[in-house]
Amino acid sequence: MAQPESLAELLNGRRAAVDASLPAVGFVAGWLVFGESIWAGAIAAVVSAIGVSWWRLRKGDKPRAVLIGLFLVCVAALIALYTGKAEDFFLLQLLSNAASALAWIISIVIRWPLLGLVVGTVLGQRTRWRRDPALLRAYSRGSWVWVMQYVIRVAVFLPLYQAGWTEALAAARLGLSGPLIAGCLAVSWWVIRRSLPADHPGLRHPVVVDPAQKAAS
């Protein structure tokens, strides 16, 4: 199978995950340095997010994705300020991972696996990959690896959040970002390659099956 790129190269997920972790580290650093001040933590998180956004824009990332990341950090900071609990800075992260796990499961069940949608969009294929039975099956299997990624995060974050361990939440946020994303990309790529026939031309070249021909067969 002629396929030079890996999922890590196509999606660049590891770098984005590390960048997204920096505001959380900034929040806890500001919170600790200024005597557990949530205001200080919130300001540090937003300043860190602005710095990351500036850096990502310079690297050519899409402005919409960068602004969404900045917006989410601001929302997380506002939640912590509103409740007066530092651990609530991570509530949005916990909820988003739970929602993501559910969304990925649903996408697999209805045969629109999100991994296929993401990679297909990056490759400019739109939904052509869905007319390739082998790719559809491979993306569905690979998507289960991403489900497990979100489940692992929820399993780690939830008890730490319930215990109010803010520092541990930041450590988990950092530890379960870059390394976990890298592992997820590698394993899901391995699953995809194992699922595709040996003579398949690869992700960039879906073998489109004519629906009429498929029905006739």
Automatic annotation (TrEMBL):
Membrane-traversing stretches: 38-57, 64-82, 102-123, 144-164, 170-192
UniProt KW keywords: Membrane, Transmembrane, Transmembrane helix
Pfam families: DUF3159 (PF11361)
Domain of life the protein comes from: Bacteria
Record-given protein name: DUF3159 domain-containing protein
